[in-house]
Design a protein that fits this description.
About 75% of the residues lie in helices and about 0% in strands. The chain is mainly alpha-helical and about 325 residues long.
Length: about 325
């Protein structure tokens, strides 16, 4: 009996140190501190990731609001599921559009365009550059499976525009508008899940009208820099020289040029409207764009096609309300 008790004591004495060590390792201050540090780091990493996401989203929103106000308002009226992606796409378009005016040499502009070409490739490899618009664009591509071709077409066309010359004819301006603005509308439709041939045809015409109107609206800005990008064939037809635009001449020939170009934009908007009954109700981007473009053309007509009239250099303060009411009533 004594031998048995002695053996049991020996086994207990062998087990106790191991048990005590295990308990101590689980409850030691060093171990608890390490776990706490890991938890804090995890929380901070999550908070940092959330802050980065919010920063990227806010960056795109502010960029579009400051550089493309009408596009900003139109984006806010889209369904919530597509709103953030729409702002990312418009921010991408703004980034490319402002390259031409923000560089002093074509080579610098080409470098910026190459960055975006590489960025698109990386986005479709799930490795977007650490740049707010790129990251937000990657999110939109992943969420809506956006077509890469439309994104690259916008870059290619903007890159060609770095040559800094006027459009030889109206058809050249329309081609540029379709490759940039229409491509953007195709992407916006994809973000809404709209796949319809009638919607695509309408978007093509609205995009052309948008490009033409943008060219007109930018004329005062360009002329202040001694640049004129209006179609040369229309200018020659009415005997209007580049110097006339640079001097902001009030001659009738200038108004005639503006009238002809604006009329072509109106024709495209009417073509887009003709597809209305066949276009899905979800295709709101092109409908809202059309309303905004028609608003400018109406104001231009009231100014008797004087593209330099002060009223045209200001935003329509009622446009946001008008777009909201149209969107609410679904009357485009």
């Amino acid at each position: 009996m004594a031998a048995t008790i002695s053996c049991i004591k020996h086994k207990v004495s062998c087990v106790q140190p191991s048990l005590v060590f295990t308990l101590q390792s689980k409850t030691s201050p060093a171990s608890a501190c390490a776990r706490r540090v890991a938890e804090i780091r995890s929380v901070r990493a999550a908070a940092s990731a959330t802050a980065d996401v919010q920063h990227n989203e806010r960056f795109c929103l502010e960029l579009v609001r400051s550089r493309d106000y009408e596009g900003f308002v139109c984006s806010l009226l889209l369904p919530e599921a597509a709103r953030r992606s729409a702002l990312a796409l418009r921010a991408f378009n703004v980034e490319l559009a402002q390259v031409k005016d923000s560089v002093s040499q074509k080579s610098l502009g080409l470098m910026r365009m190459q960055f975006w070409k590489t960025a698109i490739e990386e986005i479709y490899r799930d490795k977007p550059p650490n740049q707010p618009v790129s990251v937000e664009l990657w999110r939109a591509v992943k969420k809506h499976n956006l077509t890469k071709r439309w994104l690259t077409r916008i870059i290619t066309e903007r890159e060609k525009d770095l040559d800094d010359r006027g459009y030889r004819n109206l058809q050249e301006l329309e081609s540029y508008a379709e490759n940039t603005q229409s491509s953007l509308l195709f992407l916006l439709l994809e973000s809404l899940g709209v796949k319809d041939v009638h919607a695509d045809h309408a978007a093509s015409h609205v995009g052309k009208a948008h490009g033409i109107v943008t060219c007109l609206r930018a004329t005062p800005h360009h002329s202040s820099r001694r640049k004129v990008y209006l179609p040369m064939d229309i200018c020659m037809l009415h005997g209007a020289s580049q110097e006339d635009f640079i001097r902001r001449s009030q001659e009738q020939s200038i108004r005639d040029v503006v009238y002809d170009i604006a009329s072509q934009a109106h024709v495209h908007l009417e073509h887009a409207r003709s597809f209305g009954p066949s276009v899905p109700a979800a295709a709101t981007p092109e409908m809202l764009e059309r309303v905004a473009l028609e608003d400018f053309l109406q104001r231009l007509r009231k100014a008797d096609f004087d593209i330099f009239h002060p009223s045209l250099q200001k935003r329509n303060p009622l446009l946001a309300i008008q777009l909201y009411l149209r969107s609410w009533k679904k009357t485009y």
